[in-house]
Amino acid sequence: MLPLIPPALANDSEAEIGVGGIVLKQGTPIIMASEDLFLSEDKVRVTYRFENPSDKDIRTTVAFPLPGQPRGMLWQWFELQQKHDWKDFAYSTKVNGAPVSFRPIELAVIGTRDVTNEVKASGLPFDWYLDEPFDKSVDALSEERRAALIKQGLLVKDESFNGVYVPAWDVATWFVREQLFPANSTITVEHEYKPILGGSVGGGLYPSVRKENPQFLKDYEEVWCTDRTFIAGVDRRLTSAKPGKSVYYGETWLTYVLSPGANWNGPIRDFRMVVDKGAPENLVSFCMDGVKKIAPTQFEVRKKDFTPKDELRILILKFDEYDDVD
After folding, report:
1. What is the dihedral of CA 102, 106, 108, 110, to 10 degrees?
2. CA separation (Å) from 38 to 175, 190, 316?
3. Tens digit of pLDDT for each residue in 137-148?
4. Which residue, 311, 320, 303, 168, is CA-closest to 240?
5. Element (H, E) at 314
6. Which of 124, 191, 252, 257 sits CB 3.0–4.6 Å from 316 for a disulfide?
7. Whose CA is closest to 60, among 104, 29, 33, 105?
8. Measured between alpha carbons, how far is 40 from 157 in angstroms, rounded to an integer?
9. How many whole angstroms separate alpha carbon 278 and alpha carbon 42?
10. pTM of the predicted protein model
């Protein structure tokens, strides 16, 4: 679908990292009585109320998954091996108002499948993106061993890089803890973190760009549900410059993975979400129905018996005025 950014601005864009909510080990009767979600450029805050309707205390594993490290030969090709420092994430959790800690663990995952043990037994580097070029590790394997790992699904051929074999797994960090849910009781869990944003100094919504590349507008509509009212707002701001000045805009992208909420027993009984666009003059768009403006910068969505299935992607536009260049 991408690029959404005009070619001249492509090098000034940066991808966001989408993070979601808490995940419970499946198979428990725990109910999510409510979720109150606040999303902004500076902060993501989620407050849950979990109900144990059974007559027995339940102690189970609760996890907060972070996105996997980037996978593929692209990282080695451009010598961009690095590992994201999740300390920048500033993640914190409270249970019934009291701070608690999560234990970080690293998993090798293919999709939703945990292949940590298989990778560690393979002889291949677990954190492959920090190692020497991965193809050297593959070349060092015997033909039989390489064939076995291919059959096992740990190695896949990447046709975009001359058909070399690349790791099939992502390395994902999970914050994990054991949580007690008392019988016939409700507990409150809050977590807060600083989102990892993406964005661009420009975009594909300038009138001239939309005219020249109509597909850009279709992409915006599909990803962020921009509509005619939103585009009209863009055009009004772009034409509001004072004499001798021009208006330009930049994009901020924020992604939140809603689907972990579906991990609990049944739908979320009471769901509330507030999106804050930061400043009254900014524009915001995201794909959700029932949106209500509740403050100059805030928009609210409320739902009953809500079963989230997708990730939420938020687009925020900021406008600046500059002197014209003769």
Report:
1. 30
2. 21, 11, 15
3. 777 888 888 889
4. 320
5. strand 311-323
6. 252
7. 29
8. 39
9. 9
10. 0.80
